[in-house]
Amino acid sequence: MPTTLADRTVPFLTSQFQRIFELSRQLKQPVNLGVGQPHFDVPDEIKSEAIRAIQQGMNGYTLPSGNGDLRQLIKTSLDKQNEKNNDVIIACGTLGALTLAMQAILNPDDELLILDPYFVAYPQLAGLLGAKVTYISTYPHFQPDPDQVARAITSKTKAFILCSPGNPTGVVAEPARVKALAELADIRGIWLISDEIYSTFIYDQTHISPAKYAEHVIVCSSFSKTHALTGWRLGYAYGPAPLIRAMIAIQQATFVCAPSMAQAAGMIAWDYAMDKYKKEYQTKRDWVLANLNPRYEVTKPGGAFYVFPKCPAGSATQFSEKAIQNNLVIMPGNVFSQQDTHFRISYAVDDTTLQRGVEILNSMV
Ligand code: PLP
């Protein structure tokens, strides 16, 4: 067959994520700690609002910038938090927002700094744009080091990404580091892309966005994880007006808009209290930390719903394959990292699944 696909498809087709996904599909009833989405359902009030919107005919395109009422609601809330650069776009999930932001910022051969470990899509998106990635290791504590980031900046660097709480580590960046990174972006004239998708799930402190401290910050987030509507594709970004304008123009020519009924329901979701779910995940986090065999080395995660322990021996790929032989799905570190020493478990599952998963892990050391 002639080669008809672009070279840029290769990293997607050969990813380690696909491999684990294929292997786990062979299991009949796996204990699955591999899935990164909430295990609770969308709250009823939010569902009802989406249904109401469909029935009342809100089924056409919205503006590419998004539903005006939802944009205004988010903007008003940012105003209250004294976020200055708060022009808003409604996007198709955090990934839609990240895609637009990177398209608006990165030229081919520009450099993007990524803190390692990272969310799997960051280097893939950079690759689609022909941008170069420089990885900055944050092992073993997973805190970003502003000095290290400063040293990695070259004349080609356009942006760096911060994700706090992080996927796959759950680690929340310390406030002083967030401030220093934000200031660095302004001093060096590069963009800080802040992925704040897990900001609702922070257990030991309050969320602090780098957008509080600097101009060159674009915040990308969504309702996906916070409200369990990953399939609704409802996200948003906010930042300086010229960047948001460019993102709106690109959205017009690509996604057009986020789903109209999801945007309508976002009006209810924005102020919907998710405290009970947050408490539940905090309890699960504490349980996992208390019950993982002490032979697993773990950095305490302050947020999200992930734990990223070190493998007791061998590579994470070998360890994850051994877990699959034991009917357990976990994610090997090299899905999210240039090194293959750790593995990710998601505790966004019911208690029985979590207990069975941790039992299997403990039987493996
Ligand atoms: N960013 C991070 C850090 C994630 O973990 C995920 C999903 O796992 C996404 C973005 C994608 O989010 P969305 O479904 O809102 O596009």
Question: How is this structure best described in words?
Answer:
The protein is 39% helix and 14% strand. With 365 residues, it is an alpha/beta fold. It has a 7-stranded mixed beta sheet, sandwiched between helices. Helix 8 links the parallel strand 5 (157-163) and strand 6 (191-195). It is globular, with a radius of gyration of 20 Å. The N and C termini lie far apart (46 Å). The protein binds pyridoxal-5'-phosphate. Pyridoxal-5'-phosphate (PLP) is lined by residues 36, 93-95, 119, 163, 167, 195, 197, 222, 224, 230, 235. Pyridoxal-5'-phosphate is lined by residues 36, 93-95, 119, 163, 167, 195, 197, 222, 224, 230, 235.
What attributes characterize this protein structure?
single chain, 365 residues, alpha/beta, seven-stranded mixed beta sheet, three-stranded antiparallel beta sheet, 13 helices, 39% helix, 14% strand, globular, binds pyridoxal-5'-phosphate
First CA to last CA: what distance?
A: 46 Å
Series of secondary-structure elements, N-terminal to C-terminal: HHEHHEHEHEHEHEEEHHHEHEEEH
Main sheet specs: 7 strands, mixed
Number of strands: 12
Strand ordering within the main sheet: 2-8-7-6-5-3-4
Query: Roughly how much helix do the residues carry, as a percent range?
Result: 25-40%
Tally of separate helices: 13
Tell me the Rg in angstroms: 20 Å
Shape category:
globular
Share of residues in strands: 5-15%
Low-confidence stretches: none
The hetero compounds bound to this protein are: pyridoxal-5'-phosphate
On the 0-100 scale, what is the average pLDDT? 95
Structural class: alpha/beta
